[in-house]
Amino acid sequence: MTFEPNRGSLTEFFLGATNTDFKEAEVDMTDVEVLRTATPTAVGAVSGQSVGANQPQESNATKPVLVVNSAFLQEIKDSNPDLWHAMHQLRQLCESEGMPSPLLRSLVRLLDDLRDRWAMQFALEESYGYLKIPAASPVDPSADRFPRWKSDLAEAAQSQHCNLYLMISDLAEQAEELQYRGVTMEQLNRLIERARDFDCAVREHEQREHALIEDAFPARQ
């Protein structure tokens, strides 16, 4: 199962995939059906496309901005311990020592698993963890109900999903190719270094989303 950048967002990719695609990737079909039955408004907000044809042009008061749906985004993260455990396993493998072939086999299995897990995680986050709302108050159009700079931060965080997915997909494909052709220690070390880069990028991304979640809640006593 491969995500093609020119097909749109990760959400659009999952909505268009067949059941066979998901079964081959061993994805929980319950989660897939939840995603596929998302309301058109939610899906449209994620993909950036308007729902329905010939929509009237938005005024400044109703032009939407992207915000974090904090409670849902946190719940999605908390409900996927297997993903975080797999990331921990990746860090352990990157620090382990051993013969190239057995280590590569372990990496191939783990990277392939992570590719599918991150695809589902990002698709769920984009469907339910982010929302679009009117930027200005309907009562006073000159007053911003949600500051544009906060929306910019949310858009920057969401935009990282596609790049991170492409990173893990490339890693998984490179590992499979090395397993097929044969691997040297030098090639394995380069693969491990790229896996570490992916881990660092994920950590930075998660810190960014965590800050957005925390910012959405007032100071708690």
Describe what this molecule looks like in 3D.
- The chain is mainly α and 221 residues long.
- It has helices at 10-16, 19-24, 29-36, 40-47, 70-78, 81-95, 100-129, 148-181, 185-216, and strands spanning 64-68, 130-134.
- The chain has a two-stranded antiparallel ribbon with strand order 1-2.
- Helix 7 (100-129) runs antiparallel to helix 8.
- The longest helix has 34 residues, at 148-181.
Summarize the structure.
The chain has 221 residues and is mainly alpha-helical. Helices cover 67% and strands 5% of the residues.
Quickly list its features.
221 residues, mainly alpha, two-stranded antiparallel ribbon, 9 helices, 2 strands, elongated, disordered N terminus
Helix vs. strand class: mainly alpha
Task: Estimate the strand proportion.
Answer: under 5%
Radius of gyration, taken over Cα atoms and rounded to an integer in Å: 20 Å
Tally of domains: 1
Q: What is the helix fraction of residues, given as a range?
A: 55-70%
H/E element sequence: HHHHEHHHEHH
Helical element count? 9
Strand order of the largest sheet: 1-2
Look at the structure and give the mean pLDDT. 77
Number of strands: 2
